[in-house]
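## Example record

The block below lists the input lines for one assembly entry, exactly as stored, with component labels intact.
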Amino acid sequence: MHVPDGFIDAPTSAVTGVVAAGALAVSLRGARREQGGTSRADEADRAGERTAPLAGLVAAFIFAVQMLNFPVAAGTSGHLLGGALAAILVGPFTGVLCVSVVLLMQGVLFADGGLTALGVNVTDMAITTTVVSYAVFRALLAVLPRKRRSVTVASFVAALVSVPAAAIVFTLLYAIGGTTDVSIGKVATAMIGVHVLIGIGEAVITALTVSAVIAVRPDLVYGARGLRQRLKLRVDGALVDAPAPALARTAPGTARTSRRTLWVTGLVASLVLAGFVSFYASANPDGLEKVAHDKGIDKKEEKHAAADSPLADYGVKNVSNARVSGGLAGVIGVGVTVVAGSAVFWALRRRRAEDVSPASTGL
Amino acid sequence: MSTASRPASSSSSSAPSSSSSSSLEVSGLAFAYPDGHQALFGVDFTITRGERVALLGPNGAGKTTLVLHLNGILGGGTGTVTVAGLPVGKQHMAAVRQKVGIVFQDPDDQLFMPTVREDVAFGPAAAGIKGAALEERVRTALERVGMRDFADRPPHHLSFGQRRRVAVATVLAMEPEILVLDEPSSNLDPASRRELADILRSLDVTVLMVTHDLPYALELCPRSLVLSDGVIAADGPTGALLRDEELMRAHRLELPFGFDPRSVARGA
Amino acid sequence: MGAGHAHRLYRHGHSPVHTLPPHTKLAAAFAFVLVVVSTPREAMWAFGAYAVLLACVARHARVPAGFLLKRLLIEVPFVAFAVLMPFVAEGERVQALGLSLSVNGLWGAWNVLAKGTLGVAASVLLASTTELRELLLGLQRLKLPAPLVQIASFMIRYGDVVTDEMRRMRIARESRGFEAKGVRHWGVLAKSAGALFIRSYERGERVHLAMVSRGYSGSMPVIDEVTASGAQWRHALTLPCAALVVSLLG
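Predicted structure tokens for the full assembly:
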């Protein structure tokens, strides 16, 4: 999915560049908090920043893992994008930093992804994948029973969603600043279809990797830190609502703001998702597949789909009114879903807190 | 025979009268990790300026924990560490870190900058040295370990032995009061081992060498400390300690097959 | 892109382009690509002129054509998609060789191919004439935030160490008779990735300790700095300026 120069027009590239820069600035600050204290050497934290060495090593890891090809079927293989993996293992802010640096270096050192398309690539592959996957991951953990198995399941779903989400954001960017006229239906069909397949591979590997790390050093899995922390709260007999678990370790003040950030990002992500899924659903069914099939080029396309994230190029200029309204309906639908979902979430949490209190007083 | 000398531990941290002659004083040092695991149970010892001392001990004895206390990376327990008269604590952290040079076990961890030269310059530059003075520090430090011609190489293009020598240089460039080496001989082939020993012998700094490698300790350090279960179990001449079979057995220290400390002539 | 990242693009040399300060080259490459991207696709001859400009730079830098062309292969996946465009794009259609092609799609394919290729060629020229270390210094000089430069420099320093560990793990797997053949073996690969993460993260912690031990307190001391004279800037910016002139004429 490394977008080269010329796919997206200059103004859109510039805007995404600004978006990416802003997100990086926020991430730099967030990462400092995330890497504050995970390790055995808590005492060392006060002495100096850990972000640079840790994020640098994790970036090297992501870089290496992207080279780890997993065989999909005879002759073809795919590789990880790593956004979801990074977000779950080291936290969303550090994740954004790591994947962005990997993209930057790939662009500058390997000519992989255009220089002017850096903003597009960072927005798409670093920011979208990490933010969406982390939002999904946290939301699932909040609902699922508090077990290690749930972390695996949540990682799976988070990674699965993150890849098509990146495809959707790409489609969006293309709708705004694409340089070729192809109907949005075709772009969406092709991008999402192909990336759901890629997402499955990403999901399996991400989930297995996360569970492998959890088995050995659970304290290193940022996304599961809350798991540990909340169990501790039980023993103390504290009745306070355990806040969004990832942040239980930091000061209460930051936990609160971060929970809000999380909630907002989750909301935005699901709005974007839903808006687009309905777009997709209402698009013309005779999209790329049919054309490709008619022309006998579907085999070629399939091969590329598996070999690397593909598609990069279908423009979108003619958004019909019907589709816009379809998208709007989707956004409204998500609004309702989020409200209902939050209600369930609050209810569950309250009940859990009540369950906890007798047990802990018994101790 | 073991001479378990335990200087009276006092919590007073008044500037020691012997500050002119002692490089390092550790007294009554106890420490537990945040998870409750206690690693040190009152460590006491003194190293005088110019001494080369080996710190021996089995795995899990608390050696690394102790080393990380020497420059204040770990702290917050009881007891005091004094480096050349400076108590290790928040107020003198920068000065202490400059006086205590730790060479970590894996040179890849130690050499984190893109080139050898920048890596050696890191410590002095962090201490505010610039320009020609910085160049001079880097040059001297690399010369002392015989790596002057490698200044512009990236560390990962060097052999393991060369990397370990550069790691020593990174610390020497800070002109430390005391050099602390964590398992300096590990993973070295015999030739590199010899070269490193020659370098260490040629340096006129105080050395504390943490090691399992008993022959290496005997070769380089006239005096040894045995750290076991979080306390100093023995302190004395290295040869005498190694000949004390009972002591060795009690602290899981084993000499390599066929090595007899009696047969080695000690040239102090 | 698969495993294509293992090799680096840098090609050692002493040409005038090699010796330019890195930040001037970065700025020049970026500005050039920006001009290319902003050029309307109908100005076909302008793209030809850009290609000639790049060829001049390549000659100046003594980068052989074969080397450059081989590195352009990274673009191949996108060429495939560009080829698809005329089939799927909307609008007026033309018949050619018995196929119905969209005019818009043809333009789109041309646009992407031309701009993409020029962009990749510019990046390849930059990477093949600038050392890794220099690139980082250049980015630092161009005011990329210091923490990002640090992260990038740690990534490059430890990239080889981490990939080497990965390679050793693969050899260990294979010497015990394991070969990843299909979906069934994803689990094993993931376990390796998990182990690799733990090793990387723990190394990060140790590196941090080593840094703190030598007086690190949050900011990297600036040891090397690159500077450029006015003449060097002018030299480097010749390329984007020439491109701009072409673009304005077009």
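The two ends of chain A are 54 Å apart (CA to CA). The domain at 10-226+259-361 of chain A is CATH 1.10.1760.20 (Arp2/3 complex 21 kDa subunit ARPC3).
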